[in-house]
Design goal:
The complex is a heterodimer of chains A (353) and B (497).
Chain A lengths: L1 E7 L7 H23 L4 H13 L2 H25 L8 H18 L5 H30 L3 H21 L32 H18 L1 H11 L1 H7 L3 H28 L10 H11 L4 H20 L8 H22 E7 L3
Antiparallel strand pairs in A: 1-2
Helix pairs in contact in A: 1-13, 2-3, 2-12, 3-7, 3-10, 3-11, 3-12, 4-5, 4-6, 4-10, 4-11, 5-6, 5-10, 7-8, 7-12, 8-9, 8-10, 11-12, 11-13, 12-13
Chain B lengths: L5 E10 L2 E11 L4 E6 L5 H8 L7 E6 L2 E3 L4 H6 L2 E4 L11 H5 L11 H11 L15 H14 L4 E5 L7 H17 L3 E6 L2 H7 L2 E6 L2 E8 L5 H9 L16 E11 L5 E11 L3 E5 L6 H9 L6 E6 L2 E2 L5 H6 L2 E4 L14 H5 L8 E2 L2 E2 L1 H14 L16 H13 L5 E5 L7 H16 L3 E5 L3 H7 L2 E6 L2 E7 L5 H8 L5
Parallel strand pairs in B: 3-8, 3-9, 6-7, 7-8, 13-20, 13-21, 16-19, 19-20
Antiparallel strand pairs in B: 1-2, 1-4, 4-5, 9-10, 11-12, 11-14, 14-15, 17-18, 21-22
The chains are: A mainly alpha (353), B alpha/beta (497).
Chain lengths: 353, 497
């Protein structure tokens, strides 16, 4: 009889995360193909159609990248919070809160210069996201309450708040009973750059660089790493670990809130349940696949944006759009398994009787 | 001589590029205490892990009780009576002593547990009821339970990895007596792994010495071998040095006045502590661990804030100041807990090297990687640290190199006050020697050093004065010239002459 034992590798291949992603993605494509095959569709046809309709033209490519914006921003936020080894499951709620905060400021202010106004609205979106994670952050720092649970719960609270607002105080009479707030003025729409590509994508690039800088090049990032490595070492080094955790959470929440603001100003133009279609959850997948690396989050975010667009267009040939979500989730699953094999080796031993 | 109960021939094991075991031969005689001596990284633990079936060697043969074992695994090893006590305890803290002892499926005393417990707790002088949960036991008592666990699962061959590292001198003596009884009365075969020469000579009948993955001496008769020979075998050359004590002392650098600290249970963990250290002086703090040493270091370094009394660095009252401002006043702290306090696990070698003075590599919010790397390269060169990949996790370094990195980080800026807690614990002889030289070197450069150690040899070798802490109080203060091991030992045990 053979027995297998696991042993942890001391050194990991530097590109292990990238290879794991590739392996995960291939597994996901295989799983997707199998499902399509069962449905008597030719996987090759479906995938090439997805590819064509998601990146085949300037228009479709810009659609894909627009979809990538919230995934990337929320993913970056999650990765910043993970620097102190905390998990933010609340990006979905923070996205909604960003949009709500934006709308709140929009309703109560009026600025003629639209560029300044847009800037102010984006800032309020960021602050909204930060506000949303404020309570989990305080609970974590003061009482040690598990942030995974509290951030998850805030999703439900904020979603309830959204429903409440768009059916009540903010309900647009012109929306013919469709629950949604009133549209914002066209003057505060985020302009497009090429095709339909929103200038939000440029903000996204900027914030990828900011996240990379914070995590890898700043004193704050360093202090977060030490605090995340060992709370006792942080105390020994004179680093206030709780303060780092608190600010990391607020900044991370702000990134997701900004995603909600951009989504409102470039896509939905009003607060509705359509502000996010689970972006905050998919962002967890994006962040986890890349091992919390900002540049990786940017690239995988773009790919997942394209997958989402590809998934929605293949509905026209009678394939469910869920195939895209299956591929996304299976990619993470496969990548995590692959990462395991990069971190551990399996040694075979045979037992003799 | 009868045929060995366990015999290993030509065993090799490689990890990456490192030959942990290089054609090692090893054999054990029934009923005898064997010593396995060697520096850190010599391959002692690897060999024990092979014997207990945890590592599978690439080549070589293992024979236990005249039975050739093709591929040993922990199950087979255990069923053939090979048991190991690891350096880190493997007890279930919330379970009772009895639960832990009878946990193994190989437990042989399920019928007559009470009787067996009585017998062996007497042998080990363990004065606890078997219904006491493990987490209420002292470290020394836990060690006893660990060893008893082997007896309860009928291990005839007991491999003990550094069992004395956590014990007080009295407990060590007691362990010796218990092991003697086990080997004589129960015919247990015992392997004691250590790098303390004195213990190996006191405890064992036969000695094996390993160096760089090779077995350099087999089956030496303990009575016939000298310390010098063992050191030569272990290190290749003799490096004994005695430091001079005619060092020049200057003004007072560190002064603590009437320090008291009350812990969560309203007990005084520090009780009215006062002393001062001059420039160029080493003050040794002796004491069995848990008598206030950690608390004292934490108070001086600014980690513990809720205390009474005053701490003065260079005559400046820093009692209210935080860790960082004390560091800026040129205070360095080498904590007892290397990985976990001094170094952050899971974080890179590079990041860990900058913990003391990372703010010096910063421009506002920007942290210069270049400066950090430059600093680390200085450390690596100056302190001869072996760090193959500075971006890899800190745990890729060996224990000795971790401590060198930690010491180097704290000493490179030539601090005026140094607090060093157990700086050489768990290190091999050559690393200990290197660390001692660093401390003496720093003394000669005019630092005031507070050296907290449980190793009396170390304290006597380095200190100018020694204070003894017992239950949070200074119970003895002596100049090194008038100090004797006996007086210090008595004071550590809380006995007033």
């Amino acid at each position: 009889m053979n027995k297998f034992i696991l042993s942890k590798k001391l050194y990991r291949n530097e590109l292990a995360t990238f290879y794991s992603f590739l392996i995960g993605f291939l597994i996901a494509l295989a799983v997707g193909s199998l499902i399509l095959f069962i449905q008597e569709k030719n996987p090759f046809d479906v995938f090439s159609l997805m590819l064509k309709l998601s990146i085949g033209s300037v228009n479709s490519l810009s659609n894909s990248l627009n979809k990538a914006i919230p995934l990337i921003l929320a993913g970056l936020g999650i990765s910043i919070i993970n620097s102190v080894k905390l998990w933010n499951i609340g990006a979905e709620g923070q996205i909604f809160m960003g949009a709500i905060a934006l709308n709140f400021v929009y309703i109560n202010t009026s600025i003629n210069n639209s560029q300044i106004y847009i800037f102010l609205l984006l800032v309020s979106g960021f602050l909204g996201g930060a506000f949303c994670i404020l309570f989990p952050a305080v609970a974590k720092v003061l009482f040690g309450v598990n942030e995974i649970i509290t951030t998850l719960l805030t999703n439900y609270i904020v979603f309830g708040l959204t429903i409440y607002l768009i059916n009540g105080a903010w309900k647009d009479p012109a929306s013919l009973n469709f629950p949604a707030a009133a549209y914002v003025s066209e003057s505060v729409y985020l302009p497009t750059v090429i095709g339909k590509l929103s200038s939000g994508f440029l903000i996204c690039i900027l914030f990828t660089l900011i996240a990379y800088y914070i995590k890898d090049k700043s004193v704050f990032g360093y202090e977060m790493r030490i605090a995340g490595g060992s709370a006792l070492t942080a105390i020994y080094a004179g680093i206030n670990a709780k303060q780092k955790a608190f600010f990391a959470m607020l900044i991370g929440g702000g990134f997701a809130g900004l995603a909600g603001a951009i989504e409102l100003l470039s896509q939905t133009h009003r607060v509705s349940t359509g502000i996010s279609q689970g972006f905050g959850y998919t962002a967890i997948i994006v962040a986890a696949i890349t091992g919390m690396r900002p540049v990786g989050i940017f690239l995988v975010g773009c790919l997942f944006g394209a997958l989402t667009i590809g998934g929605s267009v293949i509905q026209t040939i009678g394939v469910s759009s869920y195939i895209a979500e299956i591929i996304q989730a299976t990619t993470l699953f496969g990548a995590l398994i692959a990462q395991f094999f990069f971190s551990y080796e399996i040694l075979k031993k045979s037992e003799n009787d | 001589m009868s045929s060995p109960i366990l015999e290993v021939k030509n065993v090799s094991k490689t990890f990456g590029n490192v030959k942990a075991l290089d054609s090692v031969d090893f054999s054990l005689q029934k009923g005898i205490i064997h010593g396995l001596l060697g520096e850190n990284g010599a391959g002692k633990s690897s060999l024990m892990n092979v014997l207990s079936g945890i590592y599978l060697p690439e080549s070589g043969t293992i024979e236990i009780k005249n039975q050739k074992i093709q591929k040993l695994n922990p199950d087979i090893a255990s069923s053939l009576g090979v048991g190991m006590v690891h350096q880190e305890f493997r007890l279930i803290e919330s379970f009772t002593i009895k639960d832990n002892l009878t946990l193994s499926k190989a437990n042989i005393f399920s019928e007559n547990f009470d009787e067996a417990y009585k017998k062996y707790s007497e042998i080990f002088s363990l004065n606890s009821n078997f219904l006491t949960p493990i987490n209420e036991l002292s470290v020394g008592e836990k060690q006893k339970v660990e060893i008893m666990k082997l007896i309860f699962k009928n291990s005839e061959i007991m491999l003990l990895d550094e069992p004395t590292a956590v014990l007080t001198p009295q407990e060590t003596l007691q362990l010796k007596e218990s092991l003697d009884k086990l080997s004589q009365e129960d015919q247990k075969t015992i392997v004691l792994i250590t790098h303390k020469l004195k213990e190996i000579k006191d405890f064992t009948e036969r000695i094996f010495v390993m160096k760089n993955g090779k077995m350099v001496a087999k089956n030496l008769e303990t009575k016939k071998v000298t310390d010098k020979e063992l050191i030569e075998l272990m290190m290749g050359e003799v490096k004994t040095s005695n430091f001079n004590k005619d060092n020049k002392k200057g003004g007072v650098k560190l002064k603590v006045e009437d320090i008291s600290l009350t812990n969560e249970e309203q007990l005084k963990s520090l009780d009215d502590i006062s002393f001062s250290i001059q420039s160029g002086e080493i003050l040794g703090v002796a004491g069995v661990s848990g008598n206030g040493q950690v608390e004292l270091a934490n108070v001086i370094c600014g980690i513990e804030k809720e205390f009474q009394g005053r701490v003065l660095i260079n005559s400046q009252d820093v009692s209210k100041k935080g860790v960082k401002s004390r560091k800026k006043l040129s205070l360095s702290y080498i904590p007892e807990n290397r990985l976990g306090v001094g170094l952050a696990p899971g974080v890179s070698v590079l990041d860990n090297s900058a913990i003391k003075e990372y703010f010096k590599a910063s421009y506002g919010p920007h942290l210069s990687k270049g400066k950090m790397l430059g600093y680390l390269n200085d450390l690596i060169k100056q302190f001869a640290i072996k760090a193959p990949d500075v971006k890899a996790e800190i745990s890729t370094l060996s224990g000795g190199n971790m401590q060198k990195l930690l010491m180097g980080r704290e000493l490179i800026s030539n601090p005026e006050v140094i607090v060093a807690a157990q700086p050489t614990r768990g290190l091999d002889v050559s690393a200990v020697e290197a660390i001692h030289k660093l401390i003496i070197n720093q003394r000669d450069k005019g630092s005031a050093v507070l050296l907290i150690s449980e190793d009396l040899d170390e304290l006597f070798k380095l200190s100018d004065r020694i204070i003894v802490l017992y239950e949070g109080k200074i119970v003895k203060e002596v100049d090194i010239n008038s100090a004797t091991i006996e007086t210090i030992g008595f004071a550590m045990a809380g006995i007033n002459e």
